[in-house]
Specification:
Structural class of chain A: mainly alpha
Radius of gyration of chain A: 17 Å
Mean pLDDT of chain A: 97
Strand content of chain A: under 5%
Oligomer: homohexamer
Order of helices and strands of chain A: HHHHHHHHH
Shape of chain A: globular
Number of helices of chain A: 9
Number of strands of chain A: 0
Chain lengths: ~190, ~190, ~190, ~190, ~190, ~190
């Protein structure tokens, strides 16, 4: 990184060469697939053990088969992250949402106010629950799960929604505390 | 508008042909300049007198000479509108901000968390004040104006910041109540 | 203004003689009708273009024929302005409400807690909606309009309620930022 | 009370004849002094033991010698009660404040936003503390007491401020739950 | 008190010998019954008149016959006091709740989140209402009383719930302002 | 589990025999060390991949060498979890905190209001930051890190505090959504 590049973290960012092999390997694989290294990988590599757990958790929720499509899971990330004012998560996962949903408008709509977005009633019910988990999980009760079931969600889907909202409650906080900077590449991705 | 186009308002939207001449003339002028009619014009045309006052107020704040650049005024719109979860204002004024600042990244940065955006300390102080006016104007005191002065803002600049934040407090509420839909064109504008 | 009179604004207040003719004419007309010049006119005259737009907007909402009586529109102003802790608007529009409703008690009741005021269920439903527009417009949905319709309000009435609540969202913020002082005359008006 | 008089409580209100002697005696004494019976006495008389404790507590704070004038203690009541949206307390104690301060404007100013009221800096510091006790007492620390001392308040004054704010935290809640109605007489008292 | 004992109040604490006889007598009676003097007695004895009114009010609510068991009344104290972050009240009344309910787990459950506690639906409805009185009494309406009645609570029970929640709104604030320290004895009481 | 035992989760809880070997092995190791199986292990075992990532993350923060003692890290858990009304985390980590700090009082003090707890100023500064990360991470700035440094915390310590607060933001939400029940054993542990 040259002196004129913007900082991507308030904390030290390791060089690829200094990272543990598995951490570097994961990062190089992402770079090969995406064409650039999303800064979350570099910023969290400062703590290899947390890095490993973070991405293992991420993959367990975001990559696995689910009653929620991958695009729907990204909707949860985008809606809850904007309420938490997490720049990195809204910008980076907004890009992923546009790509996964093949819809150049959806990310900005969902970020600002999902109630007015081009979503199905089922998807809005999903986000109602996700936002409740993110903002007031202590109020979650059986009636919330019943409301999801009325839209065809299973018990496992409910866990998935909660899991994504909860994981990004963590992620949003780490991104805000580290001052994690979204890569410039994300802003334009998937805008068609 | 064909039956399959998405609704742009919860309320009736007049045809151009049925609008008062001055309202239609303003709309056609915007269309000629922008290449499309931003929906705020069509939605508010339902009420011509409010339409005229709304845009007169808008222009009095956003078009006049000021110690704030036009881009800076758009920053105020974008930052306060996202806190109010106003989809139309964030998407439409985000586009204008990108164009006026000639910066494809700035709108998303400012919308989600201006504290982490690529702004000068002076611009962050401007937005600190704007957000206070938008969210807790009852707490504004002389010390807030002193803080602005320490960044080189004049008394007139302080009024301008407050005026923009206050006007969009109105605008955000009307957009949210009418369910005003951002035009598809806005999402991609100014992304370079 | 003599040195001992209390300040009515944090910002400069123009002399009548220095105002544009139309601004001065409007102010003199109000003075003739009311017997005094409400300070909002003097404070906003610092910015003639904003002054013109402000009062045009005000009149478009507050003076026009509507399914809401003029007293009901003032109830919206008083209830939402107290939640925004806007001294000028509560005191000045409280006086107007007492006069228009010919009820010396109603303004204080509505200001502090309209749920306990001497109002009809229809008026309380109106204020439920107005307060939601004022405090959480991003949550407004079709069900809110349905609730109004159940009380006999039309779609146009719903716009009127929202318009008044939104306009005073602006007005409250400007009054709080300018430190606009209610005229002494307002406090006693309409107390019977 | 005739059938057409408005309800003063959601709960049963005893007749004077049915009250314990000491409760009735206190009420008659107030009536003789004030010319009417403030409804708080009638509403709380439903529970004689609570009535006795309530007014003993009230008098211990509001009637005793203090570094705070009686008008200043009423300012605390009015400012905190409006934030709690307690109609009875704002209207009734607003009247008492006007009388004790011999100022027809002060109650409405303090109720809506004491920061803009015609008060001394010392009185505003008093209300800053009172509002903190009322709204966020868990955050009170030694620095709050130091801030009071810088304005000349003693430790005993600090207790008095806190005591009044705390007692009306109770009183506001009982008035809101019982739906306690302010007597019509209060609205006009002390308006000069 | 020796120099090394922790402070129990930010304010002066009188010696037993210097207290009025009735105050000292009440304290000695409590000490005889409990084996120690709960600090609330010592801290509030700084103000004998307030002390007397405080405990008279307390007893009028907490000791009298009621449709609520004594344990249920303590549940209200514990649930609302934790939301107010009042250390003294949660710790001291948590102990009393454990003893009265003969349940070593119940106090911690109710303090943190009564919705997940081992309670009956009726008790949860009681706490829903108590928390509303404590946090948002201005919103209480007839529907809240109807909800209580659906669980078998009478009108008098509703007053009792509100009374306890309101009294501890006062108590929590005084404990937080005085920095009232819970006695070490409370932590272990009733843990079986 | 017999029919009369209380539910520990809203979701299915696997039998030990049906768990993957590594998950079961971890659980048996905990059981051997603690004498019982904390319910968080059983509840999360419903999702083995998330289970593995959760405990890897937990250990990376809570078990590693740090400028924060293990007791201090538990203070962060307890203080932030009570604000999130997470019964499981307050009860379970309260027990661990008592044990690690060898202090039977500290957990309840920290849970309800750490500002009044028997802590050093450095520990209170740690919790000020942790609570900000938990409740308003979007506001974290360089000044927060400077405040920590003034108390002798390093940059790495700041990450540790943030990491624990962020991880339990996730954990609190999962515990609240699953209705995770604290084991009865926790309530009494470490009470001396």
């Amino acid at each position: 990184m040259t002196a004129t590049e913007p900082k991507i973290s308030r904390f030290p960012v390791p060089d690829l060469a200094d990272m543990p092999d598995d951490v570097r390997a994961r990062i190089l694989a992402v770079q090969e697939k995406s064409g650039f290294i999303p800064n979350v990988f570099l910023v969290l590599a400062h703590r290899p053990d947390e890095f490993r757990a973070f991405f293992a958790y991420h993959d367990a929720l975001m990559e696995k088969p689910s009653g929620l499509s991958k695009a729907e899971r990204e909707m949860i990330v985008v809606a809850t992250s904007n309420l938490n004012q997490c720049q990195y998560c809204v910008v980076a996962h907004g890009a992923i949402l546009r790509i996964r949903a093949k819809n150049p408008l959806i990310a900005d709509q969902v970020a600002v106010n999902y109630r007015k977005a081009d979503l199905t009633p089922r998807q809005k019910a999903m986000l109602d629950f996700a936002v409740k988990v993110s903002q007031a999980a202590h109020l979650v009760g059986d009636d919330d799960l019943d409301a999801l079931k009325a839209h065809g969600f299973t018990e496992e889907d409910a866990w998935d929604i909660a899991g994504v909202a909860a994981f990004f409650a963590l992620s949003n906080r780490m991104a805000n505390v580290t001052g994690m900077r979204p890569n410039d590449e994300f802003y334009k991705l998937g805008r068609g």
